[in-house]
Amino acid sequence: MSIYISSEKKLGILGGGQLGKMLIQEASKMDITCCILDPNPECSSAPYAHEYTQGKFTDYNDVLNFGRTVDVITIEIENVNTEALKKLRDEGKIIHPSPEVIEIIKDKGKQKQFYQDNHLSTSNFEILDSKEEVLRRIDSGDIKLPFVQKLCREGYDGRGVAVIRDQNDLEKLLDAESIIEPLVDIAKELSVIVSRNERGEINVFPPVEMEFNPEANLVEMLLAPAIISDEDSTIAMNLGKRVIESLNLIGVLAVELFLTKEGEILINESAPRPHNSGHQTIEANESSQYDQHLRAILNMPLGSVRQRFPAIMINVLGSEGFTGKVDYKEIDEVLKMEGAHLHLYGKKETRPFRKMGHITICGENIEDIINKGNHLKKVFRVEAK
Q: For domain 124-182, which architecture applies?
């Protein structure tokens, strides 16, 4: 059994965004030395890491050389060089999640095929090579509108997704290998965060429900726990367990789900790392998703995921029409609100719909915290100087 609570041991994180920052903040509570690899010296994590290495997490040599300086390696983004990770594992480094899991999940086609092969509930899909092939299949009647197109690779934060409802939307089609799936008649979009360590222990956070910005396809507000039946909650949590066990994943896994209007629960997609749908756990749960990830990858006992009180999470997104040095408007409205917890990611430049931070609001009354959240969504803005 390996427990890396020692300043002599180093945890290496591929990627230096806000997820890495919050992971490092949690690690600081347990004397875990954190090192990051990221191409941007002004990334969110750089001021918090014990060691910052400038380099591309997609580059074989950069990942290999960085990995040789640490003891355990994890990720905060899927688009990393897995061949270098396999070489490092051969050299005795501990890698969680495994390179094979990352390869499955960072390719949405492979991910969907994995669910199908393992009898995990998901919507029907096809994998097509190009825009031309999609149009040809539409003309032949093989593909019916409406449908959703998702790039197999490098789609992130709402990018790489096209919703095609009618003929007028065909101009939105993406010209690369992608999955095509029918537009699901959704009642609610849910997420469960699951953690698993090498001992085989598994914990699942209560399901949350998400509201998306229809233009940016990003989570705008999240409610924890989801307002669903106990039966649906159990189904969602069990499905999350089945996914993490099927993948044999060590660490944290976010499983995004559709609850259809017919009452079926389907897997949308997963992320093998801390996730936007788990930020509220920092304040609302006994143990946050970041704590759970650290415990899992370092093979510690998993912590309690009990939710202490209801919460909502609001993504702080760059306002439309503003690009440049960030300027937070009406921030006092957040700071003076009882139950509100502001997390800014330290990004110096804003642009439309860029994730600049998040706000968690906790309280005893769900309607009250939702009203508070709707107020902040109206008044708190991210503009440019």
A: 2-Layer Sandwich (3.30)
Fold type of domain 10-95: Rossmann fold (3.40.50)
Q: Which CATH code of 3.30.470.20, 3.40.1190.20, 1.10.630.10, 1.10.10.10 fits the domain covering 186-384?
A: 3.30.470.20
The amino acid occupying position 23 is L
Determine the 3-state secondary structure of 292 from DSSP.
helix
- Model-level pTM greater than 0.85? yes
Looking at the chain, list the stretches that DSSP marks H as alpha helix, in order from N- to C-terminal side: 18-27, 60-67, 82-90, 99-105, 108-117, 131-139, 230-247, 281-284, 289-297, 332-335, 366-379
3-state helix, strand, coil in the chain (%, to 5): 30, 30, 40
What is the distance between the alpha carbons of residues 271 and 304, in angstroms, rounded to a whole number? 21
67-79 pLDDT tens trace: 999 999 999 999 9
DSSP 3-state of 137: helix
Name the stretches of the chain with pLDDT < 50: 1
Domain boundaries, the chain: 10-95, 124-182, 186-384
